[in-house]
Amino acid sequence: MRKILLLFLALNTSAASLACSCMGNNSYCETLGPQQFLNPDATALVVKLSDYYYGITVKVVQNFGGSSLPNDTLTVWGDNGALCRIGVNGVAVGDTMVFGLNETDFSGNTIWNSQYPPDLEESGHYMVSVCGVYALNFINGMVVGWITAPVTQSMTIGEFETVLIGCATETGVEDEHEADPLVVRYESGVPVFELTGPTMDTQLLVHDVRGQLVLSIDRMNGPYRSQGLAVGSYLVTVKRGDRSWVRRVAVLE
């Protein structure tokens, strides 16, 4: 029987809580908006050098803006199975990516996974959040991904740099003080999505860990039994008017 597990971030709990709940956005541009709850400290084009437990080491090719980075080789932490971060170990050695980097919040040292050594995260290390769009691809000299909208776009480095300047001054879509309206429960092992508050004209989107859309409901106006979701981790986005919320959800055996 499958069960649905909501992952809530609680830095003072153990790894057994499998914690992550966060609000996000639908493009890298919105990630940079002044109202976004976690703006990247720096936007950088990086090449992966190696895996390091649940993190990676990268070489910085170009820093597009934000804080200056301390050196050209960084340790970047991802998800250890219980954090609000993307899984960076899936990136192949030698691949080039654009990351929205934040200085590590050391949450992996508190919500640690027993398969890794404790206290790996140190001052001067960085992390990549999962609460929005914090990573873009770099393919054949083009920045590729959800840059200004939730559709795949391609831009030259010059075009991308120009866009970033405007994004940092735009108003974001998030209101971190408004409660996440999504309620998730399960009936006989089947996940059921339900909303609190107004339900008309509310859209629900479910993406898998590869960013592929697996479920889209354009008018979420009542409980929805989501049959057929495979075991794994998903990002569930609720869009209502000019606001959106992102919840990380895992379907388990």
Structural class: mainly beta
Tell me roughly what share of residues is in helical segments. under 10%
Element-level helix/strand string:
EHEEEEHEEEEHEEEEEEE
**Could you please say which CATH topology of the largest domain applies here?**
OB fold (Dihydrolipoamide Acetyltransferase, E2P)
**Largest sheet report:** 5 strands, antiparallel
Overall description:
- By secondary structure, this protein is mainly beta.
- It has 2 domains: about 25-165, OB fold (Dihydrolipoamide Acetyltransferase, E2P), CATH 2.40.50; about 175-250, Immunoglobulin-like (Sandwich).
- It is about 10% helix and about 40% strand.
- The protein has 3 helices and 16 strands.
- It has helices at about 30, 105-110, 155-165; strands spanning about 5, 40-50, 55-65, 75, 95-105, 125, 135-140, 140-145, 155, 180-185, 190-195, 200-210, 215, 225, 230-240, 245-250.
- The strands form 3 sheets. It has a 5-stranded antiparallel beta sheet, with no helix packed on it. A 5-stranded mixed β-barrel has the order 2-3-4-6-5.
- The longest helix has 11 residues, at about 155-165.
- It is globular and about 50 Å long.
- The N and C termini lie close together (about 5 Å).
- Residues about 1-20 and about 170-175 have low confidence and may be disordered.
